[in-house]
Amino acid sequence: MRLANRHALITGSTKGIGLGIARAFVREGARVVVHSRSAADCAAVAKTLDGAAVPIAADLSRAEEVRRLARTALDAMDGRIDILVNNAGQPRVAPSTELAEGDYRATMDLNLTAYFLLAQAIGRQMIERGGGSIINVGSINGSVAFPQRLAYCVSKAGVNMLTKVLAIEWAAHGVRVNCLAPGYVETPFIQGLAAQGILDTRKLAARTPMGRLGTPDEMGDAAVFLAGDESAFVTGAILTADGGWQAYGYL
Predict the structure, then answer these.
(1) In what order do the strands lie in the sheet with 175-182?
(2) What confidence tens digit (pLDDT) does each residue in 103-132 have?
(3) In the CATH scheme, what architecture does the domain 7-238 have?
(4) Is the pTM of this model over 0.85?
């Protein structure tokens, strides 16, 4: 029960990595706000979390919706969010010569601007209370370039620097800000791409030194570490969880 009596807001938490984090937090004693764009999905997932979850839907590509989520979550959690996990995001796959400006801006709005706005809104009350933990879910694409993923890579590189700047500004107030940077994880999205023949998970596993993809539950365990007292002296860090993908450079 490493997160007992703590309140958490986890964006994009009805599936994949976000759901893995929500489950891990509830297992460790936290109450959580479950979020996605779909109210029905939020309600369905909240019912599976042992009465420890509050469902709130919002479209985080819109600034006013980000701020509404912050207000509603604080109201639902008695005015206190101890842990914020910025996780909601989307990829865009297109040749850079063909990437539409609207798609680029939409990716940045959801993957980066929403992180900033929600961290700002929740961070203010954390500073007032003298403590809190913010976890920005990034990606190995924050530091490793993949072709035809310009908007996604740029947004995740921005998440890395967002994490570091907020960490050094807010450290004196007891607010820690860290980034969890997953590699390839067995999420419904990745499984869907594999089913369409867009990704070959066997090749991805072979490219990974540990010989497999990660799991949402493993990302949840990493997030518990960053959220809890075991990482009390850790801030401004980028915790890479990729099975050795970035470290491997040999053919």
Answers:
(1) 53-57, 31-36, 7-10, 83-86, 132-137, 175-182, 238-241
(2) 999 999 999 999 999 999 999 999 999 999
(3) 3-Layer(aba) Sandwich (3.40)
(4) yes
